[in-house]
Amino acid sequence: MAMIQRVRVFKNFKEAEKAEIQDGISLTPNQRLKIVHSLRIRIFGRRTVDIRSHHKKT
User: Fold this and answer.
1) What is the pLDDT of residue 50?
2) Which of 15, 49, 50, 56 meets the CB 3.0–4.6 Å disulfide criterion with 10?
3) Residues 1-37, buried b or exposed e (16+ Cβ, 10 A)?
4) pLDDT tier for residue 57 given thresholds of 50, 70 and 90
5) Tell me: the pLDDT tens digits for 16-43?
6) Strand, helix or coil at 36?
7) Cβ distance 16 to 10 under 8 Å?
8) Are 40 and 48 in contact (CB under 8 A)?
């Protein structure tokens, strides 16, 4: 998954922190899941079992 990278300049740390919080709040649930999925792959590798599919009832 390719993430859009951008640079923003803020007047102070507090302003930057507020913007970061707003960015997190504005993410859709699907965007959050994609981020978690990419982090899981980055940390544990592609061969890691997805616990959600492991516990699905058939």
Assistant:
1) 73
2) 15
3) eeeeeeeeeeeeeeeeeeeeeeeeeeeeeeeeeeeee
4) low
5) 999 999 999 999 999 999 999 899 999 9
6) helix
7) yes
8) yes
Q: Average pLDDT, stretch 7-17?
A: 96
**Distance, CA of 46 to CA of 24 (rounded, Å):** 26
| 18 close to 55: Cβ distance less than 8 angstroms | no
pLDDT of residue 56: 65
Taking residue 40's Cβ as centre, other Cβ atoms within 10 Å add up to 14
Whether the CB-CB separation of 19 and 8 falls below 8 Å is answered with yes
d(C-alpha 35, C-alpha 41), whole Å: 10
